[in-house]
């Protein structure tokens, strides 16, 4: 037996369609099928079948319909409490089968194209197109149609990727004609045309879409579509692959057998992703070899190369969950779009790699358990792991164990660093130096760098110095002590200033850092040049430039540990540097949209490179991981004020770009510190911030507990403004639960506290919230008064972000009062402001409202495509609050279009 609802409602048994009776009986089955395997109450069925007026015999009618349907469906239609449930397997209901086949396509990239075609073939028209529409069905039908469209887009994208662009182009054109405002379809068509060398047509498609968006919606194309257009103009592939590999050293030598084995392992065919491991003692050249091989096989992995330092040799190796966060960020997955559990993150990561040919380099692994969650499942990918110890438990991995160089290789490396002429002139001395270094690559690099930086030295001078230290250098071939000896050999040659810089840089923790911090650590302007000396001595790694052009550096974890042993206690240097980061973060935060409820500390100006803040968002992007690390460093040092103030200063950026994971982690780490110190003001601020993250994740019970705890702490320390923001947060929780009267009580109390504290930005926010509650309660004139007042206050304060959010509320109010022209103007203005502020989450919120305004003004197709863009944002960032409202709007748009038949693809 099979039930089919993806088109006219049908039930098939024994190879033929069976009669389902009258409209009401068919509608009852349709309602149960749309909610398959979920209990539906008797009241729910009655409401769906008779939404306006119902006969007296309504219960009897339902039971009669159920009895008749059971003759066809047997035990699949069961009583469930006071209602009923249609209990079917995916193979017995086409809608469930569609979802299962699409999910299977994500798991099996090798068969994805054929599976998606199978899924699309299940559709015979609009869902339940032969039955009268019911409002109760609209969200479910909208979800099915949106899933169908997504599957069609995915199938066409795979066709283009697999060289079937010519066949996909007509279907993409037809799909774009049906959804003329859907930017993702337009972008895929631009890519397909470019790949077919039809650049002029590709640019015209983009130009037509841009004109349509600007002329009819007042919007500019989004970043993905702009990227596709720029790729055509630059004559390069759109959606450039991720390239995270560090540069390979120019003086690489030897390791021919190891390179050959690793290249063969990574290119071999396999039912799963091939894994190759490089193991050996610290300093033996594992990372250098891995990066060299990764570059050599790069053409075999055209979709990109991912690189992660797992910090296995540090005191605290990186947690696999945090590493997955970083990798998923590289794929554009942020905020609540990141699952909270490790297994779910790993599954999402594997899904993102499905169907791609990507090389993953995992450098300095601590254990197999750290590596396993980071392994792709797709056979087109491959993994290259380095570790101090052999990871024999990795199934199917090809292991290459590195040993010190052969004598000839060691001398070749020394010549590449110190100079071929010097080594050739004194070959015996060069061999003696290499032998004293135990032929260990890291030690040879240190020795070669010393020679390269001292042209007046003969080879004999260095050989004699190494002999003087032979009690340590004889240990170079065994374990960590050998590496320490090599480090010490190099550190002893630093100038006093370079040495001071080296040990102080170790205070910053296991994160990369910008070059300017050395001046703050030393409290000495103009000392950044010391970093060049440390780089030349191979004691500091240059990581290139970040997104705002400032050079960045990193201490290898073992070098950092060695430097910490030499540093002793330098609390003033650490606190001074953290205060510089705090001042920059606070200054940048004040240049971003105001985030309600966040406490940004008033800090004294310090010497720091303010010019880097010309683009505050770009600065936060460049420093995001380092700032998160700075919170850890401050907390570990017991600097509770700095820890919580740094965490809070990052919130406006985290909020703007939905970095909820970073927000929660930094606040949780700082919270431990402030509680240990008895810092109640800091604890209140952090609890309020964590509660806001719970609100974004729809975790209302946790949010309410956090807000209540913050309120009490704020009251104890006498912070009226903080107490007001916490009380308002409780009001938000009740409003989202539709407990409007209760919500109003909290908002009114919050307004009193905030007005007394003189926080006008927060006052504008709460006034708008009160207006929204009045609107929900049907008191439209009161809502208009409060919202208009809130917008005026936000405008007077120059708070464009707050004004845009109030405009969204006003647009909804205008729709309620039939002022549809004002509705459209308000919504369009809100979207324009928020897109200019690059606020993804709030832009999606405003796009749904603009879609409603477009519906009110007779533009259902534009509304349909616009709300689908918002849905994509909600699902990517995990905004659980926004998705249901967007689906309801999508259903209304689909209903207004009333388009019969299948998608024109």
From TrEMBL:
Any Pfam family hit: BTAD
Source superkingdom: Bacteria
Keyword Cytoplasm in annotation: no
UniProt key word Transcription regulation: yes
DNA-binding region: 1-88
Keywords: DNA-binding, Transcription, Transcription regulation
Domain called OmpR/PhoB-type: residue spans: 1-88
Protein name from the UniProt record: BTAD domain-containing putative transcriptional regulator
């Amino acid at each position: 037996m099979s039930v089919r609802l993806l088109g006219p409602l049908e039930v098939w048994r024994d190879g033929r369609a069976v009669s389902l009776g009258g409209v009401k009986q068919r509608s009852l089955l349709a309602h149960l099928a749309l909610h398959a395997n979920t209990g539906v109450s008797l009241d729910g069925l009655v409401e769906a079948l008779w939404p306006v007026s119902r006969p007296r015999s309504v219960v009897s009618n339902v039971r009669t319909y159920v009895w008749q349907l059971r003759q066809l469906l047997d035990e699949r239609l069961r009583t469930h409490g006071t209602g009923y449930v249609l209990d079917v397997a995916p193979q017995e209901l086409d809608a469930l089968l569609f979802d299962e086949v699409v999910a299977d396509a994500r798991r099996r990239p090798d068969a994805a194209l054929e599976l998606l075609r199978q899924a699309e073939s299940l559709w015979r028209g609009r869902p339940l197109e032969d039955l009268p529409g019911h409002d109760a069905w609209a969200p479910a039908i909208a979800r099915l149609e949106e899933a169908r469209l997504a599957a069609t887009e995915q199938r066409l994208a795979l066709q283009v990727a697999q060289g079937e662009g010519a066949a996909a182009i007509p279907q993409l054109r037809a799909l774009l004609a049906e959804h003329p405002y859907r930017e993702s379809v337009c972008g895929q068509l631009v890519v397909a045309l470019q790949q077919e060398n039809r650049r002029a047509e590709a640019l015209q498609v983009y130009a037509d879409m841009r004109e349509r968006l600007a002329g009819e919606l007042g919007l500019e194309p989004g970043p993905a579509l702009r990227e596709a257009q720029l790729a055509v103009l630059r004559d390069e592939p759109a959606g450039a692959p991720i390239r995270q590999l560090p540069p390979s050293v120019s003086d690489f030598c030897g390791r021919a057998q190891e390179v050959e084995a690793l290249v063969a392992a990574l290119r071999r065919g396999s039912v799963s992703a091939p894994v190759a491991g490089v193991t050996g003692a610290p300093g033996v050249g594992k990372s250098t070899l891995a990066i060299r091989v990764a570059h050599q096989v790069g053409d075999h992995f055209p979709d990109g190369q991912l690189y992660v330092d797992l910090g296995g040799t540090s005191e605290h190796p990186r947690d696999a969950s945090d590493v997955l966060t970083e990798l998923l960020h590289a794929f554009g997955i942020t905020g609540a779009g990141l699952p909270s559990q490790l297994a779910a993150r790993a599954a999402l990561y594997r899904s993102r790699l499905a169907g791609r040919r990507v090389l993953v380099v995992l450098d300095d692994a601590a254990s197999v358990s750290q590596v396993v969650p980071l392994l792709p499942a797709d056979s087109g990918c491959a993994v290259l792991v380095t570790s101090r110890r052999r990871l024999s438990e990795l199934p199917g991995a090809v292991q290459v164990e590195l040993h010190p160089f052969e004598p000839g290789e060691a001398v070749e490396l020394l010549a590449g660093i110190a100079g071929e002429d010097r080594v050739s002139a004194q070959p015996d001395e060069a061999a003696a130096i290499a032998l004293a270094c135990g032929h260990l690559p890291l030690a040879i690099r240190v020795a070669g760098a010393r020679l390269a930086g001292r042209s007046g030295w003969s080879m004999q001078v260095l050989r004699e110095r190494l002999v003087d230290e032979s009690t340590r250098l004889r240990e170079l071939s065994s374990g960590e002590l050998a590496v320490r000896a090599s480090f010490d050999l190099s550190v002893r040659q630093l100038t006093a200033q370079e040495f001071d810089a080296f040990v102080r840089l170790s205070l910053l923790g296991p994160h990369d850092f910008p070059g300017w911090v050395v001046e703050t650590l030393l409290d000495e302007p103009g000392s950044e040049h010391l970093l060049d000396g440390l780089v030349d001595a191979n004691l500091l790694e240059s990581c290139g430039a970040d997104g705002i052009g400032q050079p960045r550096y990193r201490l290898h974890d073992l070098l950092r540990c060695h430097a910490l042993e030499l540093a002793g206690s330098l609390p003033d240097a650490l606190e001074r540097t953290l205060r510089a980061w705090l001042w920059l973060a606070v200054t940048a935060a004040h240049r971003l949209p105001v985030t309600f409820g966040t406490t940004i500390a008033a800090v004294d100006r310090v010497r720091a490179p303010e010019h880097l803040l010309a683009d505050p968002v770009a600065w936060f992007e460049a420093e995001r991981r380092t700032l998160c690390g700075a919170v850890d460093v401050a907390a570990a040092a017991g600097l509770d004020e700095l820890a919580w103030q740094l965490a809070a200063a990052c919130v406006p950026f985290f909020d703007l770009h939905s970095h909820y994971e970073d927000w929660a982690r930094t606040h949780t780490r700082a919270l431990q510190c402030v509680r240990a110190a008895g810092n109640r003001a800091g604890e209140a601020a952090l609890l309020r911030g964590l509660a806001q993250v719970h609100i974004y994740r729809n975790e209302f019970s946790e949010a309410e507990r956090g807000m209540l705890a913050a309120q009490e702490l704020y009251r104890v320390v006498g912070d009226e403004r903080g107490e007001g923001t916490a009380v308002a947060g409780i009001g938000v929780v009740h409003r989202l639960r539709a407990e409007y009267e209760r919500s109003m009580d909290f908002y009114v109390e919050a307004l009193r506290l905030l007005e007394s504290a003189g926080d006008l930005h927060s006052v504008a926010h709460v006034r708008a919230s009160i207006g929204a509650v009045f609107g929900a309660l049907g008191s439209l004139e009161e809502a208009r008064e409060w919202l208009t007042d809130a917008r005026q206050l936000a405008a007077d304060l120059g708070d464009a972000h707050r004004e845009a959010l109030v405009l969204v509320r006003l647009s909804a109010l205008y729709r309620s009062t039939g002022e549809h022209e004002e509705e459209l103007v308000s919504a369009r203005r809100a979207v324009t402001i928020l897109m200019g502020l690059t606020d993804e989450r709030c832009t999606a919120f405003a796009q749904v409202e603009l879609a409603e305004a477009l519906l009110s003004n007779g533009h259902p197709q534009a509304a349909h495509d616009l709300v689908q863009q918002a849905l994509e944002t909600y699902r990517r960032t995990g905004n659980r609050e926004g998705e249901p409202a967007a689906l309801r709007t999508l259903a209304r748009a689909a209903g207004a279009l009333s388009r019969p038949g299948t998608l024109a693809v």
